[in-house]
Amino acid sequence: MSKGTILSGMRPTGRLHIGHLSVLENWARLQDEYRCYFMIADLHSLTTKFDDTAELPNDTRQMVLDWLSVGIDPVKSAVFVQSAVREHAELHLYFSMNTPLSWLERCPTYKDQLVQFEKQGKDITTYGFLGYPLLQAADILIYLADTVPVGEDQLPHIELTREVARRFNFLYKTDLFPEPQALLGRFPLVPGVDGRKMSKSYGNDIAISASTDEVKKRVNAMITDPERVRREDPGHPEVCIVHKYQEIYNNEMLEYVQKACRGAERGCVACKKELLEIVEEMLAPIRERRARYEKSSYEDLRQYILNAREYLSGQGSLQSDDNGTERVPEAVVDRFKKFTGTRREKNYLREIGQYIIDDYMAGVFDENDVCDVVDAKMDLVNLILIKGSQRARLTARNTIKKVRDAMNLRY
Ligand code: TRP
Ligand code: SF4
Fold it and tell me: What torsion, rounded to 10 degrees, do the Cα atoms 171, 393, 49, 132 define?
């Protein structure tokens, strides 16, 4: 069924904007054809923001919500946080032993970024920042991924990954690592509403999670043809941002709009109104899915735990209540409150419940740990990340074992 293995990731930057949509939709499409690992690259954030981690958990959460709302499916794909799979750090260390410094120093993204940060008065000449692309190589190779869907800016990193794989295979006489290929899409560049690059920090973005009001505000702020002062003046669609958006999102109407604009038969208000409708239509289902993932109530999970008695009693190591009936510890059950969701989500929660119970039974967690896990993390998004990291870790561990074998690290 599977063409191969994909790994891709993004640094956690909080809410994404509609410029990211086409990339995410591409990821979502690929899920059916490939075994996919989608990673929140929090360690990569640390390479430049090691001194500012306060927003890391929230940024991670917001970005994952965007992914899920666009159709990244945690049942099909492992959605996980890089730092939770510590094997990435381990492989990075092994690779660091045999990677020439010059490979990293000549990386164009390294030099560019150093200059950028210097301009902002920030010194990031750290060990970790230089190693950024090598960590990325470890991210990819630890899943033996053969395909990496990324933007063009990442190509030097994929090339380095191939060199790292080749060198490892050569040094240790193995064919463990494939040489992965980048999978480039053709994604339209969506400008910010003021015509500059779309960016949260410029305040010119339309967030994937924007409310109707927010979208309205942004569309109204879009710059049209500055020379068109009155409705009777002929317009120039080629300089108009609204029109740029129509090119991307409303191709069928394009010819008509251009003609009507040039002939002053159409006002900018009509264009904006139409664009607003199109963007709304695009974002409405995404918003809906996001809201469902955001909701955190746990009734079904609690129910699952209760029903799991049967399963657990077969294992014979549970506490008994007064009637001699074996049960899941009260304190655990109490932690699971309410969950409402679709059938599919409930099934998914059930599966995760199973995982927690299994680990409890296997002695990975004791009762207090289970309560901690539940208190701290038991909402759908965090569960997805726990589960995804668990899944990723299985593969990562397996690769590490083979790497250590190849390197004669036996003890
Ligand atoms: N460097 C990527 C970026 O800045 C994020 C990233 C980290 C990544 N590890 C990766 C992308 C592995 C693809 C594969 O966007
Ligand atoms: Fe732009 Fe439409 Fe106004 Fe022409 S009519 S300038 S295309 S918004």
Answer: 20
Taking only the tens place, the pLDDT of each residue in 130-157 is 999 999 999 999 999 999 999 888 999 9
Looking at the structure, give the CATH architecture of the domain made up of residues 200-294.
Orthogonal Bundle (1.10)
Q: Where are the domains of the chain?
A: 4-184, 200-294, 298-378
Distance from residue 271's CA to the centre of ligand 2 (Å): 6
**pLDDT reading at 8 higher than 70:** yes
Q: Which CATH architecture describes the domain 4-184? A: 3-Layer(aba) Sandwich (3.40)
- Test site for ligand 2: of 261, 273, 274, 276, most ligand atoms within 8 A of the Cβ: 261
For the beta sheet containing 35-40, the strands, ordered from the edge strand earlier in sequence to the opposite edge, are 78-81, 35-40, 5-10, 147-149, 181-183
Ligand 2 pocket, 258 CB below 6 A? Answer: no
- Give the residue, by CA position, lying nearest to ligand 1 atom 5: 10
pLDDT of res. 311: 43
pLDDT of residue 310: 42
Give the Cα separation of 148 and 181 in Å (integer). 6
